[in-house]
């Protein structure tokens, strides 16, 4: 009778050119805080990781207002995680024509915001009503769908094709 409604939205930033360890240092400070408090913290922290995380938090809030129609004042950072990405590989020229590999670390950051004002459960009937098609003839199919098409299956193994020769 009741169905769970989506109350959280995320934003994902991939291949951000910084170490995952340095980004986790900032992410641990904002996890579980409100959206407005998070923006103030990120503006005042002196780390380089704050700017891409700030952009992701802002993007997640924009996604929440577009998808859920929620207000930014009701959002909290429910989940924030940092994973290691593939390292960017370059070669640096060294003495006597040799090369030295350089691996620059990258990371993937996921910010999930949750709207605390939305109820967890809504009536299933309302959800079914909102998913119904909006055109007039709901029971009739379009005329082009009523045509029966017969597709014959041609198989080269059973019809004596290429593989029948000995």
From TrEMBL:
Annotated protein name in UniProt: Large ribosomal subunit protein uL22c
Name of a matching Pfam family: Ribosomal_L22
Gene3D superfamilies: Ribosomal protein L22/L17 (3.90.470.10)
Keyword field contains Plastid: yes
Subunit-level organization: Part of the 50S ribosomal subunit.
Listed PANTHER family: CHLOROPLAST 50S RIBOSOMAL PROTEIN L22-RELATED (PTHR13501), LARGE RIBOSOMAL SUBUNIT PROTEIN UL22M (PTHR13501:SF10)
SUPFAM superfamilies reported for this sequence: Ribosomal protein L22
NCBIfam families named in the record: rplV_bact (TIGR01044)
GO MF assignments: rRNA binding; structural constituent of ribosome
Keyword RNA-binding: yes
Protein's cellular compartments: Plastid, Chloroplast
Family stated for the protein in its record: Belongs to the universal ribosomal protein uL22 family.
UniProt-listed InterPro entries: Ribosomal_uL22 (IPR001063), Ribosomal_uL22_bac/chlpt-type (IPR005727), Ribosomal_uL22_bac/org-type (IPR047867), Ribosomal_uL22_CS (IPR018260), Ribosomal_uL22_sf (IPR036394)
Gene transcribed to yield this protein: rpl22
Organism: Lonicera calcarata
UniProt GO cellular component terms: chloroplast; large ribosomal subunit
Keyword terms, alphabetized: Chloroplast, Plastid, Ribonucleoprotein, Ribosomal protein, RNA-binding, rRNA-binding
Main function: This protein binds specifically to 23S rRNA. The globular domain of the protein is located near the polypeptide exit tunnel on the outside of the subunit, while an extended beta-hairpin is found that lines the wall of the exit tunnel in the center of the 70S ribosome.
Highest taxon of the lineage: Eukaryota
BP terms from Gene Ontology: translation
């Amino acid at each position: 009778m009741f169905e769970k409604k989506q109350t959280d939205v995320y934003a994902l930033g991939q291949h951000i050119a910084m170490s995952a360890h340095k980004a986790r240092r900032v992410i641990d400070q904002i996890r579980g805080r409100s959206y407005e408090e998070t923006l103030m913290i990120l503006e005042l922290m002196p780390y380089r990781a704050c700017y891409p995380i700030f952009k992701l938090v802002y993007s997640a809030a924009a996604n929440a207002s577009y998808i859920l129609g929620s207000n930014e004042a009701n959002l909290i950072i429910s989940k924030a995680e940092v994973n290691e990405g593939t390292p960017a590989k370059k070669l640096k020229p060294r003495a006597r024509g040799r090369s030295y590999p350089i691996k620059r670390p990258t990371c993937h950051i996921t910010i999930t915001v949750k709207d605390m004002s939305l109820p967890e459960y809504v009536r299933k009937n309302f959800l079914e009503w909102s998913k119904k098609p909006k055109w007039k003839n709901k029971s009739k199919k379009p005329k082009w769908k009523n045509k029966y098409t017969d597709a014959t299956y041609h198989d080269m193994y059973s019809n004596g094709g290429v593989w029948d020769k000995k």
